[in-house]
Specification:
single chain, alpha+beta, two-stranded antiparallel ribbon, 9 strands, globular
């Protein structure tokens, strides 16, 4: 019996965690799923997004959807985030995977012009990146370290629709910890926003 129990413990230790507390697909400490060639726009110029091309030490990947009021509410905070980390080794990438007319690349290009978005924003028609990261909400954030390991995932603020002065910015706190070579204190929060619209397989 003791050998049987020991075998079960060894098996449990050998099997890596495959889901977080709130995210049912990926977990903190897991290598971030790779992605490449996602059509995108940056300050009015056509481009593409590949994780392997990002040179910055810290990557913040956020899933967005233009039709979502939570995304509309957080847009200024995204631009503020980019401004605050100018000159630091941090890259913010926005991606939409929504099967929704307002959330596809032509509309994203209009959005970027209208909002003067400061980050690269792309659209993945295949929705593969969303499925790989287990994204279920917009906005939903993933903070990756220099080894492209997931160190934080979830929301930027507890209430994206009404951000109070001095409210905790979970994404910024995670980024600051990584830049300082410290452990991220809050590693996961529930994503808050609109549901991601996936195509039926």
């Amino acid at each position: 019996m003791r050998m049987f129990v020991s075998g079960l413990v060894a098996l449990a230790l050998a099997v890596p965690a495959v889901a977080g507390e709130y995210n049912k697909t990926v977990d903190i400490g897991q290598k971030a799923p790779d992605f490449s060639g996602i059509p995108a726009t940056y300050k009015g110029q056509d481009t593409s997004i590949s994780l392997s091309d990002v040179e910055e030490e810290v990557v913040v990947l956020v899933f967005l959807g233009n039709h979502c009021p939570y995304v509309v509410a957080i847009e200024d905070h995204l631009n503020d985030f980019v401004d605050n980390y100018q000159g630091k080794s941090v890259k913010l990438i926005g991606v939409s995977v929504n099967d929704h007319p307002q959330d596809k690349l032509p509309q994203i290009k209009e959005w970027v012009k209208e909002k003067n978005s400061l980050y690269t924003y792309g659209y993945d028609e295949s929705q593969e990146i969303g499925r790989k990261y287990g994204s279920t909400k917009t906005p939903e954030f993933f903070v990756l370290d220099k080894d492209r390991t997931i160190r934080y995932m979830g929301a930027m603020y507890r209430n994206p629709l009404k951000v109070e002065a001095g409210e905790t910015n979970f994404v910024a706190n995670a980024v600051d910890a990584l830049l300082a070579g410290e452990e991220v204190e809050v590693k996961e929060t529930p994503a808050i926003g609109c549901g991601v619209v996936y195509k039926r397989k």
